[in-house]
Specification:
Elements (H helix, E strand, L loop, with lengths): L4 H14 L25 E2 L10 E5 L8 H8 L21 H4 L2 H12 L15 E5 L5 E4 L5 E4 L6 H16 L3 E5 L1 H15 L5 E4 L4 H19 L3 H11 L9 H8 L1 H25 L26
Parallel strand pairs: 2-3, 2-6, 6-7
Antiparallel strand pairs: 1-3, 4-5
Helix pairs in contact: 1-5, 4-10, 5-6, 8-9
């Protein structure tokens, strides 16, 4: 484990840049700009991540860059070729992970941190300073419709374990999170499968349904309306509570506020799920006689490390 943000970034850059993996050699539908392909990238690490408890790492699925050729080109032309793309924005609330930038995962992060026993988190804290957020899949894919138009596509299932071996395993070993959130079934499944194999221990991990607009509108919004109609529930109670939990997090463009107001029911359900799972985990930890902390192996040596999709919108 690294003890500070600077050394963690340097270690991750060294690992990721040393992996000789080119998905275009195996898949014909990797997003590119005029035949040039982006490499992998390191996670966004909040400036106070290593100083807080618990340490929270969030894995979403992948950037969808099919409609962002200008952005791809800008990263390809940068000195690091996009390796530190999640750290490049002057606006630290914009880390190029769509459901985080749009607010949903910020609320979920606050709910998780707030529910942790002995947490350092306070509602006046800036959530962006405390978390690590990235994608499990480090590359972007597309598909073609019948007319030959390129559309965003989820990554192939066969690439998940490759990503773990080359990149994510090292990220977890360096960052040593107490809690990991897997966004979407494929990401959560890959994390559970590989964490169990690597650690031999049950990690504290939360599975979060992908908060994409289609999923929210088809599944969660109707349930919220039904709750209002059948139980006379007042969503203002949930909205006020969640907004108060993030009062220290900047929201200049109103994205967090909009996510809470629009998708209060989804976030309400996530709060209930988190509270339930946290209670079960704490009880299990106490029965086994150890403090509720996620124990992970030390950082891998270079020799030992051989080897919601999430839409991105600028």
């Amino acid at each position: 484990m690294c003890s500070d943000r600077k050394s963690a970034i340097a270690s991750l850059v060294n690992n990721h840049s040393s992996q000789e993996y080119h998905p275009e050699d195996n898949y014909s539908n990797v997003v590119n700009a005029d035949g040039e392909y982006l490499g992998p990238y390191i996670p966004y690490i909040g400036k106070s991540y290593f100083k807080t408890k618990p340490r929270l790492l969030i894995y979403a699925m992948a950037q969808n860059l099919n409609r962002a050729e200008g952005l791809v080109r800008s990263w390809l032309d940068s000195p690091d070729k996009g390796m530190r793309r999640q750290h490049r924005s002057a606006d630290t609330t914009h880390v190029h992970v769509y459901p985080y930038d749009n607010g949903h995962l910020k609320v979920i992060a606050a709910l998780v941190l707030n529910s942790y026993p002995g947490t350092h988190y306070k509602p006046t804290d800036n959530i962006d300073d405390l978390v690590v957020i990235t994608n499990f899949i480090k590359f972007s894919f597309y598909r073609e419709d019948k007319k030959g138009n390129r559309l965003d596509a989820n990554p192939p299932l066969g690439i998940y374990d490759i990503m773990w071996e080359l990149y994510c395993k090292y990220e977890v070993s360096v960052l040593q999170p107490n809690i990991i959130i897997g966004v979407g079934n494929e990401v959560a499944n890959a994390l559970e499968r590989n964490l169990k194999t690597e650690q031999g221990l049950k990690s504290l991990m939360f599975r979060v349904p992908f908060p994409g607009r289609l999923n929210l509108n088809s599944r969660w919004v109707p349930k919220g309306k039904l709750l209002i109609e059948t139980k006379k529930h007042d969503p203002a109670i949930d909205i006020t509570e969640m907004k108060a939990l993030l009062k220290g997090t900047p929201d200049k463009k109103g994205r967090v506020d909009r996510a809470i107001k629009t998708d209060w029911y989804y976030l309400r359900e996530m709060k209930s799920y988190i509270a339930k799972e946290m209670k079960i985990w704490v009880y299990g930890a106490s029965k086994r006689g150890f403090a509720p902390l996620l124990i992970l192996p030390p950082p891998l040596s270079r020799e030992g490390d051989k080897g919601g999709g999430l839409p991105y919108k600028e």
